[in-house]
Amino acid sequence: MFDLQILIVFMIICSVVAVETKDLLSAVISIGATGLGLSVCFLLLQAPDLAIVQLVVEILVLVILIRGTVNRDGIDYRRRLWLPLIVSGVFIALFLVCVYYLINELPRFSYPIMKISKTYIADGFKQTGTANTVVAILLNYRLFDTFAGVTVFFASVIGVLTVMRKIGSKK
Amino acid sequence: MIEYFLCFVLFCIGLYAVAVKRNMIKIIIGLSIMGYAINLFFTLIGYVHNAAYPILSKVNITQQTSLNMVDPLPQALVLTAIVIGLAITIILVSISIRLYEKYGTFDITEIRKLKG
């Protein structure tokens, strides 16, 4: 999976640019590049549904973030806070060392343990009548999970309407 | 295994942005990067080498006799997680727009006056 590694490195470079650049609009465009790279990653990982959804969501996020940043100040505040920088650097280094030892405990890449998924793949078509196994899991086996997701999305829409309303908000 | 490690490097970049940056938009960008990394990690866990995508069709069934497919369960979970990530981003951006209207800055160290 050499192509996948190259794509992840591209995503890392894009996100470093997005985090460290001064101009906010450039940062938003870079995060868009990261998300589209993630969409291509999903395509390489044999997940076409995820690639489509990620593409649509990424475009929406890009539009919303540009709406949030355009015509506002693009100054990245120069005075650095040294204590959070040092503490988070030490923590991230420790975290990466732990990750390096812990990923050896996981099942090897591209050899997953598929205890439940074997049943889903084998019986999914007979039990649900759907050819797409991901949709069968999403809308039949784990419907309540999807239902909770819809509830969270609805709650966030209510929250946005409450925060952004003009009538009744004090100046 | 290098894919897993690169994925966690991506997660750490997002963590750095959330912990150190003072611009609210940068913090939102950091949260999005962390979400991307976790989604990618889940999908990486379910990948099977030389396997088909988890959609039953005549081509898939005839080519792979023993139904050799990638793991559909993490994909279903990530599909929900992507949509919830969109909801999180929308609400964070709307709150930051409101705070910008009120305080005239995105700097979180300036926004500490608690008044109605």
Number of helices of chain A: 7
How many strand units of chain B?
Answer: 0
Termini separation of chain B (Å)? 51 Å
Helix content of chain A: over 70%
Beta strand % of chain A: under 5%
Radius of gyration of chain A, in Å, reads 21 Å
Global shape of chain B: elongated
| Class derived from helix and strand content of chain B | mainly alpha
Strand content of chain B: under 5%
Number of helices of chain B: 4
Low-confidence spans of chain B: none
CATH architect. name of chain B: Orthogonal Bundle
Work out the largest interface and the residue count of each chain.
Answer: A-B, 90 and 78 residues
What's the overall average pLDDT of chain B, rounded?
A: 84
Oligomer: heterodimer
Outline:
The complex is a heterodimer of chains A (171) and B (116). Chain A has 171 residues and is mainly α. Chain A contains seven helices and no strands.
Task: Please write out the topology.
The complex is a heterodimer of chains A (171) and B (116).
Chain A: H1 2-20, H2 24-44, H3 48-69, H4 82-102, H5 115-128, H6 133-141, H7 143-164
Chain B: H1 2-20, H2 24-45, H3 58-63, H4 72-103
Which key phrases capture this entry?
heterodimer; A: 171 residues; mainly alpha; 2 domains; 7 helices; 75% helix; B: 116 residues; Helix Hairpins; 4 helices; 0% strand
Would you give an account of this structure?
The complex is a heterodimer of chains A (about 170) and B (about 120). With about 170 residues, chain A is an all-alpha fold. Chain A folds into 2 domains: about 1-85; about 115-170, no CATH class. In chain A, about 75% of the residues lie in helices and about 0% in strands. Chain A contains 7 helices and no strands. The longest helix of chain A has 22 residues, at about 50-70. Chain A is extended and about 60 Å long. Chain B has about 120 residues and is an all-alpha fold. Chain B has a single domain (about 1-105), classed as Helix Hairpins. Chain B has 4 helices and no strands. The longest helix of chain B has about 30 residues, at about 70-105. Chains A and B meet through helix 1, helix 2, helix 3, helix 4 and helix 5 of A and helix 1, helix 2 and helix 4 of B.
